Amino acid sequence: MTAPLHSRSGTYAAIAAVSAAVIAFQLVVMQLLAASQWHHFAYMVISMALLGFGAAGTALVLMRTFLSRHYVAAVPLLYVASGVTMAATAWLSGLFGDFDAFLLFFDHEQFGLLLVLYLVYSLPFFFGGLAITLVFYREVGRIGALYFANMAGSGAGAVLVIGLLWVLPADRLPGLLALLPLFAAWLVRPEWLSRKAATGIAAAALAVPVVALVYPSAPAPSQYKPIHSALLLPGAEVVHRAYSPYGRLEIVRADALRFAPSLSLRYIGEPPVRDVMFNNGEYFGTLLGRAAEGDMHILDWTTRGLPYAVRTPGSVLALDAGTGNDVSQALAHGVPRVIAVEPHRQANHLLRERHPEWVDGVYRDPAVSLYGTSPRAFLARPSEELHDLIVLPVLGAFGGTSGVGALQERYELTVEAFGKLWAALSEEGMIAVTVWDDQPPRKTLRVLSTWRDGLARQGIDDPEMHVAALRSWGTVTYIASRSPWTAEQVERVRVFGRDRGFDPLILPGVTPDERERLHVLPDPGFLDMVDALVSGDPASLIEQYPFDLRPVTDDRPFFAHFLRWSGLPELYRIFGARELPYLELGFVLGVVTFVQIVLAAFVLILLPLFRVGWTGTRRRWTLLFFVGTGTGFMLFEIVLIQKLVLYLGQPVYAAAAVLTTLLICSGLGSLASSRLPASGRVLVLAALTVAVSILLYGQWLMPVLEASMGWSLPARSAAVFLLLAPPAFVMGMMFPLGLRRLAGSDQSHIPWACGIDSSLSVAATALATLLALEMGFGAVMLLAAAAYVLVALAGPRLGSPVS
Amino acid sequence: MMLLSRVLVLLALPLVLPGLAAGQSDPYAVERERMVARQLEARGIEDPATLAAMREVPRHEFVPVDRRRHAYQDRPVPIGYGQTISQPHLVAYMTERVRPRAGMRVLEIGTGSGYQAAVLGAILDEVYTIEIIGDLARWGAENLRRAGYDHVQVRHGDGYYGWPEKAPFDAIVVTAAADHIPPPLLEQLSDGGYMVIPVGSPFLTQTLMLVTREGEDIRTRSLVPVRFVPLTRETR
């Protein structure tokens, strides 16, 4: 059956090159679509595109005779097809019109354009997947080494793309990455092909990536991205653009870009006109710089001035400091020690090193220290330093966000984070956060439910004496104080509110009239809800409210996710089917993604059965085994990425560390599996080892990692590698061992199994997110362990009995 | 699909023909009447002047041609540039809230398609509107002229500064709100005047904020077209 390609080393190198290109292309497409639309939409499209792998398995089942007969020519041709389509995706996706995710639930024509996007983006994965699966199928005797090449190539691709994103704009990378599959095709070109013919085909194929490199094309940007609105202003221009794995940073200048968020209605004068920085088209921050000498800081004319009205801090810690506006405010108050923590290192580099003049050098002020890490990683560092004021990032946006960030983890806003912040406060220290008003109220209430829980864990049984809040026409600023309020401080809050035209929302002794003196609420019930969360019975309110107001925890760190299944009928009645998705677009896209993946996976798994039949072939065990391997691996991977963001401080590095470790160690496991018999006993032992490891890691990984939080980034990365290597090594054995068990069965089993594994891997990523939203990461880990128990049960019954 | 739409057109003919016989050449008159009855009167819009204006102004003239089929539906309609024309109920609600009456002078910030200005122009003689996006300003002005509201004055410019030459205004309608209320607009609001601003994401029911000037005091009141009272679960 085996008709090897050019050489074994050529085959391995080709598989590794295509695998690297495919994974790197996936991450580049995620960047491009996140920049032009939204992250969740990018995730939706890429998930469907990855089903191209599942479709490859199905296609091979249906066409295995033909492809097997033309094996030597088919593999390089499929590599070429993968490369050419990779380079042409951005151009192909715009052929039938520009898609806008925001209009998806408004304009049904968008569904047609979405289908085109799915199809176009799945082509490189389909062709690449079909070639790799075909090689696996034809050369299953060498599956251990082949799978190693596949995994190692993928791991290398994940690292490669991060490097590339630092040096080239994302829209040029598809053309560059397309060269890898073309190189793979050259490596395994048929021996009977003349040199002249091979060169001609190569030149023709190269034309597409070359054009894509010289004339890059990117998906059309949504007109509902904030940067789009900014660029419509008269005279607006992008004055700087930079690329990195963090995204595309752009700075927009226009005479009408004024900075005055929820400005007091008593302000007289003109707010500062300043450039605005956008990341992937989303607002990142205004380059406010310093207040003019003698002028009151503009933020002191918003509710964000509240903490400074209460006490004069000697030190300020600004988390997710962005472009340094909170730092600027602290400097305006003469604070002698200001620490800014901002994980976007490229933005930090721009504002501190390359163009400090953009922000009047606030990050270079001798009083200021800037740290390029996440707030939680910063708080976990061993430090004795205490802070008088800790400022959290502003939550929400004017007019709402339509919930596009519903699936984003916010570890700095959890109950556990509150504990860390509290521990970092001085005796008279305060935590401050400002929230844009949202209707129906959600964010404004969840801050309180989380703080209440956090205060209770600190043993504070009179929260109303530790929390205060002022409300303007657009924002609420909450402050929590380590020491109880004094009468003098309460009076200062009142005076500040009266001077600026803000109403007290939470304050000891506040009267009902005071709370709506200037800004009358749409629903007075809001005040009762605030009282219930601060000093009443939060559990009862949380139980009754149609939105999810449960405190945010490290296990469920999704601050902006409020939709709850039980509340949907009521919300549907109020808002109707058309408006409901816009309450939380991110979550709805997540659900839509999951449903369509499950449906598509169902079709891809079932379709071959009409051709090859079901009964009498032990097919059920193949199904269960590969459902288990696909689901278990991906659930584990997704949770690790989410968890390690806390440890490594950067989502980009967390994803790279987890992907690289899992893929490379799994590849090594696959290689080692060649030396083991594919017996039922080995399969059961290996699967149960993985299941027990996942359970242990679910319980102990984070506590173990927390002990080493203070280490340097390379040391922490090494710790991640060493900790994840053992389970990844054993997990890597499961797939090749399973395929080897199938080698003696009906020939259709192997491609079908590859299809199941790929389809379920994609479905599991969507399932992991939805499950984590509702039940937390712990539940996802349990399900991952259960998936490997399923593998252990199905393993011994897989394929023909081994003698 | 084409066949189905033709059948639907034929079915609709008996409804349209009496209108034509009565001298109306507007094929959207029935839809507009239905919009007023079901979306406005049924949801508490009572001001006769506002209702008459909503009956009169041809909303379909203020949406892009390829979206005219959505013009009278109970939803906002995208008009390009990341902007929408507000849903009919919100336009009527905002109009009613500024209590339009003869002799009033009204400023609108954010002309957009020109529809809100047209509704105000159907009631009042002095309506001024400013649009910051040049293309939209030209398109909105053209829509207003085509629909017969030539007396509405359109300016392409930054609404932040208002229209000081015509100030003070009895009412200011801000349809393209920024994250702050410009101090010059507050200065140009007459004592006892109203300013209305819709707040909320596109395609979602928006909250209307009413700003009132009473001497030196400026107060705000958030009004919600679809009221949301979670604990008692009432809606209106």
Description:
The complex is a heterodimer of chains A (803) and B (236). Chain A has helices spanning 8-36, 39-69, 71-93, 109-138, 143-167, 173-177, 179-187, 195-214, 226-231, 306-310, 325-332, 345-354, 375-380, 415-423, 443-457, 487-500, 512-515, 525-535, 538-544, 568-583, 585-612, 619-648, 651-673, 680-706, 713-742, 749-775, 777-794, and strands at residues 237-244, 247-253, 276-279, 282-286, 315-319, 337-341, 368-371, 387-391, 425-436, 467-471, 475-481, 503-506, 519-520. By secondary structure, chain A is α/β, with parallel strands linked by helices. Chain A contains 27 helices and 13 strands. Chain A folds into three domains: 1-236, Growth Hormone, Chain: A, CATH 1.20.1250; 290-565, Vaccinia Virus protein VP39 (Rossmann fold, 3-Layer(aba) Sandwich); 613-803, MFS general substrate transporter like domains (Growth Hormone, Chain: A). Chain A is globular. Chain A has an eight-stranded mixed β-sheet, sandwiched between helices. In chain A, strands 1-2-3-4 form a four-stranded antiparallel β-sheet. The longest helix of chain A has 31 residues, at 39-69. In chain A, strand 1 and strand 2 (247-253) form a beta hairpin. The mean pLDDT of chain A is 90. The longest helix of chain B is centred in the N-terminal third of the chain and has 20 residues, at 2-21. Chain B has seven helices and nine strands, in the order αααββαβαβαββαβββ. Chain B has a seven-stranded mixed β-sheet. In chain B, a hairpin with a 2-residue loop joins strand 8 and strand 9. Chain B has one domain (2-223): 3-Layer(aba) Sandwich (Rossmann fold). Chain B is α/β, with parallel strands linked by helices. Chain B is globular, with a radius of gyration of 18 Å. Chain B has helices at residues 2-21, 29-40, 48-56, 88-97, 115-123, 134-146, 183-187; strands spanning 77-80, 83-85, 105-109, 126-131, 153-156, 169-174, 189-199, 207-214, 217-223.
